[in-house]
Amino acid sequence: MKIAIAKEIDPSEPRVAASPDTVKKYRAIGAEVAIEPGAGIKSGLPDSEFSAVGATVSADALKDADIIIKVRRPEASELSQYKRGALVIAIMDPYGNEAALKTIAEAGVSAFAMELMPRITRAQVMDVLSSQANLAGYRAVIEAAEAFGRAFPMMMTAAGTIPAAKVFVMGVGVAGLQAIATARRLGAVVTATDVRPATKEQVESLGAKFLAVEDEEFKNAQTAGGYAKEMSREYQAKQAALTAEHIKKQDIIITTALIPGRPAPRLVTSAMVKSMRPGSVLIDLAIERGGNVEGARPGEVVETDGVKIVGYTNVAGRVAQSASSLYARNLFSFIETLVDKPNKALAVNWDDELVKATALTRDGAVIHPNFQPKSA
User: Fold this and answer.
1) Which residues are known to be catalytic?
2) How far apart are CA 279 and CA 265, in angstroms?
3) Which of 12, 359, 369, 374 is 20 to 30 A removed from 322 (C-alpha atoms)?
4) pLDDT tens figures, 293-338
């Protein structure tokens, strides 16, 4: 059983799919591990750290590998290096990328999307969305602090008092909760909003205040899987009216709202942005799915009348070493379920619920029900 750690070809991706710690764990379950040269360098992990724990550093690392682990979905140029039948495990970003999935299927590999891992107790340790969102929420506050022209905490000095920054977090998933906690640690006055009723208690437990239109639709606005439902236009209008007045008084807004398989909902309009004071900052963590803030642009900081809209992509990657470490553990925990430990061999159970939820392609076809080619 040979596991290959691929080097990311996207120059904007600093993360790597393994750590020295997980290499040791792979070897303990009987795997040979090879890594492409320089795969971990942008995460502060030189080749020497991988070779020190038994990995082979080789330009031919992908050749004949049974399992190839990556951060991002492989491009067509990468697929030509993989043997047919290999398992390729990564964050595949499948929604809206059916053509790319077709190319992967035609390469004859079995592709698994880590972000489709079901939210069940058994799979918590494999939840890449949570591990990466946690870091993105933290980093969002750090980015906001850097872009903001004042201190976060209230400061009382002989020269006068500096008021605490007012931070409003929109969307209270994993990223939102971490943003709340980080902003509170830095001394900000924090408010937050979400369409899911269960988040109110979580927000308040972190010392923030909750803001929402709490009608009947709000009370039933969460799926069985714990995700947010898309709200009606009527509810969105009421919520927008409530938040519009609140936004005028805020110094920093962090938006994190995402709905799986759909464009990010628009939470902050250009009129709301214009209502904010010069020097205010908006951080849009949903920019890669279209963005929550009108006027946000991927990878850019847009300034309008003194208000900054930050649209950095791959925010978790801005703390690359930590993000890589957590992602590597997510991957190992999943791969461990694919291995027959007594025989130290690959043994995929295609009927396992984790495999069914994450497997995109097999034997030359797209097999995941959510991404089947549309019939003519």
Assistant:
1) 119, 124, 127, 130, 227
2) 25
3) 359
4) 999 999 999 999 999 999 999 999 999 999 999 999 999 999 999 9
